[in-house]
Amino acid sequence: MAKSASTTAKTAPAADFEHSLDELEQLVAKMEGGDLSLDDSLASFERGIGLYRQCQQSLEKAELRVRLLLDPDAPESAEPFEPER
């Protein structure tokens, strides 16, 4: 039983990221639809900014974990990821 709790704890950040990203995509679609009032658009924009920041923070943590796995003694010497084009 303890194993499933630790497994859940390990997958929670990825699940949180996926949930935040899905919600952000839904907000963007609603806003692009143009059917929201100004107040609803502003509230959606605010929520979207919060979700964006959560996603960005999750990605930064994941990058740090990868750096630590690649070189646990000197993670700062790891090369930054090059985005695919």
Structure description:
The termini are far apart. It is elongated and about 55 Å long. The protein is built from two helices and no strands. Helix 1 packs across helix 2. The model has no long low-confidence stretch (mean pLDDT 82). It has a domain of 59 residues: Orthogonal Bundle (Helix Hairpins). The chain is mainly α. It is found in: Cytoplasm. Bidirectionally degrades single-stranded DNA into large acid-insoluble oligonucleotides, which are then degraded further into small acid-soluble oligonucleotides. It is an enzyme of class 3 (hydrolase). Belongs to the XseB family. Keywords: Cytoplasm, Exonuclease, Hydrolase, Nuclease.
So how many helices? 2
User: Radius of gyration over alpha carbons?
Assistant: 18 Å
Mind telling me the CATH class of one domain? Mainly Alpha
Largest sheet: none
Mean of residue pLDDT values? 82
Q: How big a fraction of the residues is strand?
A: under 5%
Structural class: mainly alpha
Overall CATH architecture of one domain:
Orthogonal Bundle
How much helicity do the residues have? over 70%
Q: What's the number of extended β-strand segments?
A: 0
The best one-word shape is elongated
Q: Give the N-to-C terminal Cα separation.
A: 44 Å
In terms of per-residue confidence, which ranges show pLDDT below 50 for 5 or more consecutive residues?
none
CATH topology of one domain: Helix Hairpins
Helix and strand element order: HH
